[in-house]
Design brief:
Blueprint: E1 4-10, E2 17-18, E3 27-36, E4 43-46, E5 52-53, E6 57-65
Length: 67
Amino acid sequence: MAKRILALVNKHPEHAQPFRLSLPGDYRVRHALSWHDGDGAPTVRHGSAPGSLAPYSAAVVLLDPRD
């Protein structure tokens, strides 16, 4: 089974965008990188995806197949 990449973008200038990420049972979140307007570098999370995106932000979620 192949690794997957999920890209999320919030283009709204004023409002955060909450979301719920539901994955098939055979995948898990390995890393999530998120950027927000004005960041010099991405924020890295291990093992979980963000629950919302700040205004003008993006996230890339790296998924791995479960063993």
